[in-house]
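check this one:
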Amino acid sequence: MKDKIRIVVTDSGTGGLKFCAELAGYLKRKGGCHEAELIFFNCRPADGWGYQRLGTDAERAEIFSRALFAVNENYSPDMIVIACNTLSSVYDHTDFAKSAQVPVIGIIDSGTRCAAKLLNSDAELVMLMFATPVTVGAGIHKHLLVESGIRHERLSYQECPGLPEIIVNGDKTEIAGRIAYFMDKAAGCLQGKKFAVSLFCTHFSYAVESFRAAAAGYSGFNGEIINPDAALLEQVAGYLKLEPAVSDSGGVNVKVVTKTRHSEQVKKR
């Protein structure tokens, strides 16, 4: 392990900030290097709107690719972590992915592995997967789970349009009400079948308890909510082969790059 590592965490909003903070804490506890620099790079394409507004995956991939090239050129990271399901779903279509010289880890694999483990532990369990419309449209979680042997009828996506923005605005009453609405759409037709919940948007990790409260209103809820952040931490740590704690002479520094700065960098390309 290098004495100093630089990891860039990307998202299409502020959901990944929570993961970045969790990664900073993890690195402080586990270490494996004398110094670590974490950079949170907000890949949202513009103030006031994000990738959900773009019409095609090709457009999303083009803009995200520009952002990744800007990340690589400006920060020379040792690793890029995509803490966003939407961006993870389009990464393979980017020009950056075709020539990347730096390891890139996305959150989708982490989430699907957690879901598969839980589904394989109970053959009668149904998984309700809450995500943004773009992530649902890509269908990658479901595709990977079916490939792993899970029957497709045990997997149900629920689109949650506008929920990331509502969570960012922070009105707890509005957040709880909207989540209850989406939960009713997803669980209301299960007729008492056992189900668990997967949160396939990093913004949703800020509202886990609201999801839990909404799901608890249905008799079939088994109490399990999958938040892929922890699994993504383990995946990053496994790649870095972290062992001893960070020494007192080092530490973890976190830097946040705003969407405004990102926009300026992309325009220069």
Q: What stands out?
A: The domain at 108-227 is CATH 3.40.50.1860 (Rossmann fold).
